């Protein structure tokens, strides 16, 4: 049987006079007296079918029974549409298929929602994901994702990188998030972990002589979910021996350019600019700055050291942003609530009205020199944060993004990229009372910090870098530690005892001691790239079969309970209270 000669969206004027067979889903049906029109749809688009009872009475009779999402096979002649019936909005709009034979291949039950329906509840969409995937947006996104991965593979292969797969079942290792644990039936009481990333494995590959590796890798992290975070992610994983940062940056820029060109027809300007972490933090309050708009943060710490306004004088750090709007009292109250959500105790401000006069309860405490330093054009407001530097960055960085959206300062049509370099190597964990690796514990100290990082960890820099696009961290990587003794020193600073180092990372330390070359790499979140590429605010709309925000699949009911017999084989007993807390895993 010949199911189809062309895809529905491929029929064009040059096919007029040809007999074709098409197959797909009924997108809509319209009865016009005796004539019946059916829009036949597949992933390439729509072709209009015309069923004329005078030409094909049996086919027309069947067409009256067609409902949305019936699967049809139609055979007939391609004819031009009448001039007044041409549809310029679709690629097939100049032609239609005069149907001679129609087959209803399969029918559909009543739909839980229509494919063109707006505002459908996400849980309902995920419950009937196979139907949701037929919607034009999802067809576009998943097709876009395929082209993205294809462009990545071509770029990496062109750069001399080999695609190598790494295990899904591996050893639990501390990498920042919780591991998904998999019990072993053959070794009772022992467990695998699903990889949070192939970090150690890719290091072992380059140590093993594969000097340029890449993989489109599946990674698993048992963490709480957000709109831009899921538990199963896909990433481009890259590692190279004898790393050259300029080569690596240039290759990743070429990859991004190829993806944007192939997927969107957009030409990116490369090379991308670079900015240190400290500069990004000071100017934008973020290590992933959105450069599509201004509102840069300025520093007023020195200018307020002797201020009569005690909040400024006593604060370790005073920074501010100049906003091109004279806010009202009610607007300032709302902005203060935003600032408090990010940890601020309040929000000091100066508002310069249209006459250039200042309006603020703190103005009377500021000297003429201070007011002159903060002065703006009429119709501007100055918003302040005064606290420890990390708090100030967090508050003003969040306010900057909020105002960029609220005041519509973001140019949605441009693409702004930047490399962020020279990250802090460590950060202090108040909860654990110890230093933690900012990236991961295998990150190399930046040149000049190899000997001093453990003497002054607060100021140690890492040889690490991120690539940021339109305010989203799309890729991140580092040069790795290839000396066993240096790796052991980092582990010691992180308070891993020699015994823990051997238990958790003994195989890596052994490999580093057996001729490990210098190496480094980068990883890109495919899902996050897709969000930016497709301009989707929700990560679940760029993944074919995602879980919901509770980590549940409403379609299949996973995670689900298993038979007691299987649990006994695994040596696992589920406590009754754990079953009650988890509740039903189904729909």
| Order of strands across the main sheet | 6-9-10-22-21-20-17-11
Average residue-wise pLDDT = 93
Regarding quaternary structure, how should these chains be classified?
single chain
Instruction: Work out the strand percent.
Output: 15-25%
Structural class, please? alpha+beta
Low-confidence stretches: none
Largest sheet features: 8 strands, mixed
* Terminal CA distance: 39 Å
What is the radius of gyration computed over CA atoms, rounded to a whole number of angstroms? 30 Å
Inertia-based shape? globular
DSSP summary: helix tally: 16
> Can you give the helix content as a percent range?
25-40%
List keywords for this structure.
587 residues; alpha+beta; five-stranded mixed β-barrel; 22 strands; 28% helix
Describe the structure.
The chain has 587 residues and is an alpha+beta fold. Helix content is 28%, strand content 24%. It has 16 helices and 22 strands. It has helices at 57-63, 122-127, 129-132, 136-158, 199-207, 245-264, 277-284, 310-313, 329-341, 368-374, 389-406, 484-493, 498-512, 526-534, 564-570, 576-582; strands spanning 19-32, 35-42, 45-51, 71-80, 95-106, 162-163, 181-183, 191-193, 212-220, 232-241, 274-276, 297-299, 317-323, 348-352, 358-359, 380-387, 417-421, 426-429, 434-437, 464-469, 472-479, 519-525. The strands form five sheets. It has an eight-stranded mixed beta sheet with strand order 6-9-10-22-21-20-17-11, with helices on both faces. A five-stranded mixed β-barrel has the order 1-2-3-5-4. Strands 12-13-16-14-15 form a five-stranded antiparallel beta sheet. A hairpin with a 4-residue loop joins strand 18 and strand 19 (434-437). Helix 9 crosses helix 11 (389-406) and helix 12 (484-493) runs antiparallel to helix 13 (498-512). It is globular.
């Amino acid at each position: 049987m010949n199911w189809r000669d062309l895809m529905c969206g491929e029929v064009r004027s040059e096919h007029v006079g040809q007999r074709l067979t098409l197959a797909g889903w009924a997108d809509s049906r319209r009865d016009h007296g005796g004539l019946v029109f059916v829009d036949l749809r597949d992933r390439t688009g729509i072709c209009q079918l015309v069923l004329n009872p005078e030409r094909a009475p049996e086919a027309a009779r069947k067409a009256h029974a067609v409902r949305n999402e019936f699967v049809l096979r139609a055979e007939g002649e391609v004819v031009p549409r009448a001039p007044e019936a041409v549809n310029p909005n679709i690629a097939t709009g100049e032609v239609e298929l005069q149907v001679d034979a129609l087959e209803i291949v399969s029918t559909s039950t009543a739909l839980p929602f229509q494919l063109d329906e707006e505002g459908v509840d996400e849980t309902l969409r995920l419950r009937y994901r196979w139907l949701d995937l037929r919607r034009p947006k999802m067809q576009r996104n998943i097709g876009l994702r395929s082209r993205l991965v294809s462009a990545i593979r071509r770029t990496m292969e062109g750069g001399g990188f080999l695609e190598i797969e790494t295990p899904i079942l591996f050893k639990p290792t501390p990498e920042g998030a919780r591991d998904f644990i998999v019990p072993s039936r053959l070794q009772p009481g022992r467990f695998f972990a699903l990889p949070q990333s192939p970090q150690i494995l890719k290091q072992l590959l380059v140590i093993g002589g594969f000097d340029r590796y890449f993989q489109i890798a599946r990674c698993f992290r048992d963490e709480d979910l957000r709109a831009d975070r899921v538990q199963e992610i896909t990433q481009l994983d890259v590692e190279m021996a004898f790393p050259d940062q300029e080569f690596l940056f240039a290759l990743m820029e070429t990859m991004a350019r190829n993806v944007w060109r192939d997927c969107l027809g957009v030409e990116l300007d490369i090379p991308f600019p670079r900015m240190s972490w400290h500069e990004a933090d000071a100017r934008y309050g973020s290590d992933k700055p959105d450069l599509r708009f201004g509102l840069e943060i300025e520093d007023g710490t020195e200018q307020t050291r002797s201020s009569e306004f005690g909040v400024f004088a006593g604060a370790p750090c005073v920074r501010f942003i100049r906003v091109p709007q004279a806010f009202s009292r009610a607007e300032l109250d709302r902005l203060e609530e935003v600032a408090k959500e990010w940890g601020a105790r309040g929000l000091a401000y100066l508002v310069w009205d249209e006459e250039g006069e200042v309006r603020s309860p703190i103005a009377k405490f500021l000297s003429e020199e201070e007011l002159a330093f903060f002065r703006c054009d009429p119709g501007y407001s100055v918003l302040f944060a005064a606290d420890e530097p990390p708090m100030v960055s967090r508050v003003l960085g969040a306010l900057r993004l909020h105002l960029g959206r609220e005041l519509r300062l973001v140019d949605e049509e441009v693409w702004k990229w930047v490399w962020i370099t020279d990250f802090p190597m460590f950060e202090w964990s108040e909860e654990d009372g110890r230093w933690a690796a900012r990236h991961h514990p295998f990150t190399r100290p930046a040149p000049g910090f190899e000997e001093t990082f453990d003497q002054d960890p607060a100021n140690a820099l890492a040889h690490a870098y991120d690539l940021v696009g339109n305010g989203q961290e799309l890729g991140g990587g580092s040069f790795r530690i290839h000396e066993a003794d240096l790796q052991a020193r980092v582990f010691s600073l992180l308070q891993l005892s020699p015994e823990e180092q051997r238990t958790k990372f003994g195989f890596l330390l052994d490999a580093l001691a057996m001729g490990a070359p210098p190496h480094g790499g980068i990883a890109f979140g495919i899902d996050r790239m897709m969000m930016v590429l497709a301009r989707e605010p929700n990560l679940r709309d760029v993944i074919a079969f995602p879980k919901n925000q509770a980590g549940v699949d409403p379609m299949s009911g996973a995670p689900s309970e298993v038979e007691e017999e299987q649990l006994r084989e695994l040596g696992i007993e589920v406590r009754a209270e754990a079953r009650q807390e988890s509740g039903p895993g189904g729909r």
